[in-house]
Design a protein that fits this description.
The structure is a single chain. The protein is of the alpha/beta class. It has 3 domains: about 5-270, Rossmann fold (3-Layer(aba) Sandwich), CATH 3.40.50.970; about 290-440, Rossmann fold (3-Layer(aba) Sandwich); about 465-590, Rossmann fold (3-Layer(aba) Sandwich), CATH 3.40.50.920. It contains 24 helices and 19 strands. It has a 7-stranded mixed β-sheet, with helices on both faces. The protein has a 5-stranded parallel β-sheet with strand order 2-3-4-6-5, with helices on both faces. Helix 7 (about 125-140) packs parallel to helix 8. The relative contact order is 0.08.
Length: about 600
């Protein structure tokens, strides 16, 4: 069968208007083509898969029944947005998704008028859609607004804040609950248990009572992968012009047996053969996440007061082994980052020793709790911050490039950034055994070196390590930027210092570097504004050491998605860019031989 035959209907759909021109009898065949096209494209390129497979029929039905983009679809998170992108004029570009210059893996307002609200983090859709509905009503526009949120997203407090507000209005707002029993892992919590019920009648009565009491008209539950049944319920809900709640039950990974059987493994995939499914590869290099997971199990054996908390990121944060070995000391709180942090504070207040495993981008959501509930009270909570710095294909919404800036300004915090696997283990032990509020931040990448160190091998707080002695220039590297700093140091015969601690800073090392060198260069996988380089500048200024300083990090702009190497190069943090920037600066201050000057503009911060 040719590709044209496989996509007999899909090939004619360049916009939802084309979809709405089809007879209803053609929608099921179209959905089958759409599912096959998405499966084959993502299998060939990688990306988020299982969530989108489960929402194929829902996406078709929504665009068929509503006049998009005049009617507004507001998708939550965006893991399930691939069918939406395919039907809204981006079918031929799906193979570029998450690649440099290609489609975003999430929703972006600047990518398409059908992406009505940017997404990447969960539980924002109802609040945003309510705001849009209110604005449309005030403008006298006759449009419908639909928020599509998963049961995983419904575990976050923001969703209930929006529901509480919406239920007291008469806005034309439809909330579609895509209930597949999953976030990335199987969903957790009392609401999940409440919605599941023992049978369909119990589920309908429970959900109808809950959302009806909150001011919503309730529709469902309906099988979200049964297109005729779904169309019938959505038509009825469409004609209700007040807040209404449509309960749609789907199967994550629907239509592809391996993904239905293991939706966790097929949530986000690299390239694979859809005929064979994902084949495990035991030769994958060790990651910082795995080093953390192994350390956590060892420390739990050593200290019975250790408990671990994750906001719905068991697999991504390396907690699978811990959850199996220590189930009574493991807490998955669902997508509820604020609660995760304050829960840790409460556990610590009663003598336990919590470790919060969280992505850098998601810790942003619990920042007030980190300051007010943990740090201000001096409670011993350690934050294991995964996906710090560049995250590559996930793009700006998931970039972990702000944590050094927002952590180092908190009184009493200890902030560490390992450069290799051994330092990773030592820093985890230092933070956990030292008490107080601490953070170890590490990237989504393979480690350098093997993770071999004694469990109780700790570091003295605020101690840097000079790893190369040179002259003229001192490179102060934070975290995994050490590898690049060493390569540049070899080329320039520069001093290289592994700073290790962002807070407390090694004041003696900073002052020594400033007094003994013509130029001090800081390197960090974080934004320049307020980051580790700023800490170095503040230290030098406070001690009246007036040396030249260049701070290299991510610029004051939103980065694009691409590979890790591509994004680092965009920010001027790859070897060639750092070497060029330092050479140019040395040439400007005089007395240095320039080794190589490619014909392009230097990348320097505002402090350069």
């Amino acid at each position: 069968m040719t590709q044209e035959q496989e996509n007999r209907l899909l090939g004619t759909i360049d916009s939802p208007a084309d979809l709405r021109a089809l007879p209803e009898s053609e929608l099921a065949p179209l959905a089958a083509e759409l599912r096959g096209f998405m499966l084959n494209t993502v299998a060939g390129n990688g990306g988020h898969l299982a969530a989108g497979l489960g929402t194929v029929e829902l996406t078709v039905a929504l665009h068929y029944l509503f006049d998009t983009p005049h009617d507004l679809l507001v998708w939550d998170v965006g893991h399930q947005c691939y069918p939406h992108k395919i039907l809204t004029g981006r079918r031929d570009r799906l193979a570029t998704i998450r690649k440099r210059g290609g489609l975003s893996g999430f929703l972006r307002r600047d990518e398409s008028p059908y992406d009505t609200f940017g997404a990447g983090h969960s539980s924002t859709s109802i609040s945003a859609a309510l705001g849009m509905a209110i604005a449309s009503a005030k403008a006298g526009e006759n449009r419908r607004t639909i928020a599509i949120i998963g049961d995983g997203g419904m575990t976050a407090g923001l969703a209930y804040e929006a529901i509480d507000h919406a239920g007291a209005t008469e806005c034309d707002l439809m909330v579609v609950l895509n209930d597949n029993g999953m976030s990335i892992s199987p969903n957790v919590g009392a609401l999940h248990d409440y919605l599941q019920g023992n049978n369909e009648l119990a589920k309908r009565a429970a959900a109808g009572r809950l959302f009806g009491d909150l001011g919503f008209e309730y529709f469902g539950p309906v099988d979200g992968n049964d297109l005729p049944a779904l169309l019938e319920v959505l038509r009825a809900a469409r004609d209700c012009r007040r807040p209404r709640f449509v309960h749609v039950v789907t199967r994550k990974g629907a239509g592809y047996a391996p993904a239905e059987e293991d939706p966790v493994a097929y949530h986000g995939v690299t390239r694979f053969d859809p005929r064979l499914g994902i084949v495990s590869n035991s030769t994958q290099p060790t990651t910082y996440t795995q080093v953390f997971g192994d350390w956590l199990c060892e420390m739990a054996e050593y200290d019975p007061k250790l408990v671990a908390i994750t906001p719905a990121m068991r697999e991504g944060s390396g907690l699978v082994k811990f959850a199996k070995r220590f189930p009574d000391r493991y807490f998955d709180v669902g997508i509820a980052e604020q609660h995760a942090v304050t829960l840790a504070a409460g556990l610590a207040a009663q003598g336990l020793k919590p470790v919060v495993a969280i992505y850098s981008t998601f810790l942003q959501r619990g920042y007030d709790q980190l300051i007010h509930d943990v740090a201000m009270q001096g409670l011993p909570v350690m934050f294991a911050i995964d996906r710090a710095g560049v995250v590559g294909p996930d793009g700006a919404t998931h970039a972990g490039t702000f944590d050094l800036s927002f952590l180092r300004c908190i009184p009493g915090m200890t902030v560490m950034a390992p450069s290799d696997a051994v330092e990773m283990r030592r820093m985890l032990s230092t933070g956990f055994l030292g008490g107080g509020c601490s953070a170890v931040r590490y990237p989504r990448s393979a480690t350098i070196g093997a993770a071999s160190s004694l469990l109780t091998d700790v570091m003295q707080l605020g101690t840097a390590k000079t790893v190369r002695t040179g002259s003229g220039c001192a490179l102060l590297a934070f975290g995994t930027m050490l590898e690049t700093a060493l390569k540049v140091g070899e080329r320039l015969d520069a001093t290289v210092i592994n700073m290790r601690f962002v807070k407390p800073l090694d004041v003696a090392a900073v002052l020594g570097a400033g007094r003994a060198h013509d130029l001090v260069v800081t390197l960090e996988d974080n934004v320049v504004a307020g980051g580790a380089g700023s800490a170095v500048l503040e230290c030098l200024a406070a001690h009246d050491v007036m040396t030249r300083v260049m701070t290299l990090g991510h610029p004051d702009s939103w980065g694009e998605h691409g590979t890790r190497d591509e994004v680092l190069r965009d920010s001027g943090l790859d070897f060639d860019s750092v070497l060029e920037a330092v050479e140019r600066r040395l040439a400007r201050i005089g007395g240095r031989r320039v080794l190589s000057l490619p014909a392009r503009e230097p990348r320097e911060s505002s402090h350069g």
